[in-house]
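User: Teach me something about this protein's shape.
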Amino acid sequence: MTIRTTLLAGAAFAFALPAFAADSELTVLDWAGWDIDGIMDGYVAKNGDKPTYSFFADDDEAFQKFSSGFKADIVHPCAAHVARYREAGLIEPWDVSKIPEFANIGARMLDSEVFKDGEGVWFIPTDYAYTAIAYNTKEVPEADVASLKVFEDPKYAGRISLPDSTDDVWSLAFLATGLTSWENVTDEQFQAAADWLRAVHPNVRAYWSDPAEMSQLMATGEVLVAWSWNDGVALLQDEGFPIGFQRSPAEGAATWFCGFVNAKDGPGNEEKAYDFINSLLAPTSAPALLDGLGYALSNDAAMATIPAETLKAHYVDPVSTTILAQTPIPTEMRTRMIDEFEAIKAGF
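Assistant: First, the predicted structure itself:
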């Protein structure tokens, strides 16, 4: 099969079944596709089967589902969304004394009082990667993607794609308008970024909702330039498509990281939540996560054992350019970003 049918078939299957039942004593609300082999070896060895998964497509869907009463034991949000789980009183701290590999998690991924404060550790980072410019190397000169201005270029009108994701699209807009952090954004800076997104909107052929959709658009040639995660690019390249990934444009690129929160009063076995985290953070999970999903493990010691050429092939090697990190932001700012982006997509 082509990459288009392979990825779309996988996505359709994931969303057709809302939950995959296995070990009934642990329910994980997770991103579609995260039930891959290799990262739950420790859990299966101890408990006999993988946990029960219920999948979501994006962070907003996950929070809406969980806050509406869906019963899960642990949830997998990205860093920028952890605050609203805390504010809603949905989670409780982890006991990191039960997580031996916690000491090997990069300190940069815990540098927020949203994640770690006097009450405890509220978030266990597990995975990270980058968002940057994917482009068709046969149709788009490398010089054109040396800047984020490529998204404004009338030459590519109707041939670009942006994520249908608040975090990713605003990280692009802030970078394009001169910001390297989305903390303490002024009204003027917010408006400048919104104006940039409005100017780019007529060039957008589609706002992609998952890597499968982005990959399909680029595989068919409908889209020549996209603001993309690294995993879809690596897979397109593996399938022989002429796709490059520019992670060092003049204005910079974005990085994101995700992890797990511990549900307050979860219905399952609390100790199995720790079995899950310990299995995922185990050094043996690093190559499995990289091969299966294209993401890096938050366990820095484990990642240090992976050859540099392998990291580079998956585009998770260190980047020597400006990086906007998708860190926690206040709820009122998130609401403003969501509302403004919806208005822009609707043509207002």
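Now, about its shape. The mean pLDDT is 92. The longest strand covers residues 124-136. If you'd like, I can walk through any region in more detail.
User: That's plenty for now, thanks!
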